[in-house]
Amino acid sequence: MTETAPTPYPLLSSDSHVFEPADLWTARCKDVEDVPRVERVGNRDLWMIGRHVMGTTAAAQNAGVRHIDPAELKIAGLFDDVPTAAYDPEARVSEQDVDGIGGEVLYTTVGLFLYGQLRDSERLSLFCGAYNDWLAEFCRHAPDRLKGMAMINVDDIAGAVKELERCRSLGLVGAMIPSFPDWDRPYGHPDYEPLWAAASDLEAPLALHVATNRPGPVRSLSFEFPAECTQAMLTNLDFWVRLSLTDIILSGVFQRHPNLMVGSVENELGWIPYFLFQLDYTYTDRLRRSSWPKKFEDGRLPSDYFRSNVFASFQEDPTAMPHRHVIGIDTLTWGSDYPHPESTYPKSREITSRILADVPEPEREQILAGNTARIFGFRY
After folding, report:
1. pTM for the whole thing?
2. What dihedral do alpha carbons 96, 101, 104, 108 form, nearest 10°?
3. Chain segment 254-280, per-residue pLDDT in tens
4. How many structural domains is the chain composed of?
5. 277 lies in which domain range?
6. What distance in Å separates the CA atoms of residue 318 and residue 263, rounded to the nearest whole number?
7. What is the pLDDT of the chain when averaged over all its residues?
């Protein structure tokens, strides 16, 4: 493998994050009990909801540290340790320039905890709405470079459709939905049809971001059990998104809505070639059950729908590049994950140049900028 020169175009990150201001929910949900808030306990600031610890500032205070000394990564600290660019848009654009980034698709950080920990669906919808208002204000500072992905609660599908419509009117480009929804209503259920139709009509991509499962009978890395997160959970993050994408594809969602885009975000890529093989094999060669959906009328395979209607983000996964055409060149998008500890910041150009060193330049540009520009509406 040979190193290549830095790209002549700005990188576009399909997966970056904000870190919510400490008063986001306390200021916008004043008459609501037990709103998410920051509380100082000893020498660290904790995100709390009621008396329950949601998380720490570690998710945002460690950007770039692993590239200097991984031993210096801190599990908790003070909100003052969080870089201003995590919650201030002017500072954020400056940090983009430092890292050679021309634009970012922005996801929540604290909101990831809410999907897994908050069983009260009505309050979840309220907190999603307050966050979406703040994110829209954040992105208005530089709409060509900051593209926000809303949080929506699919427990209430009619409410989710209304919130998606509202968020598009606010300028947000799409929405995050749980990587795995309520166990009694997986994404193949016909109840979701209004959501798929609305997202297609609104040209709003939907994202299955890691660690956003709704609470269920099987323990998962949804931050429902943040203190019990294990290495085994972290190693197998893609399990849940595979279930959801299988339900969506095999139930014919993309056949009915050919313009709908659904993404696997922060689940890396190496699992996809084998997943596509199993998806097609199950569809074509396994004994069919009477409860299974009918085969596609157009003769396409499930993997064909994956390549035309799914986008998949990666940060630092070198295993997939030799199999990029199996996955689909139009599917691949890169993300920096700033300001999380795993972020490629401030070495994004160096890291992507190394991972894509053997990829022809037109395909490199498509993966590092072109696909993200097409899906999320960037110009570069």
Report:
1. 0.94
2. -50
3. 999 999 999 999 999 999 999 999 999
4. 1
5. 11-20+89-376
6. 19
7. 92
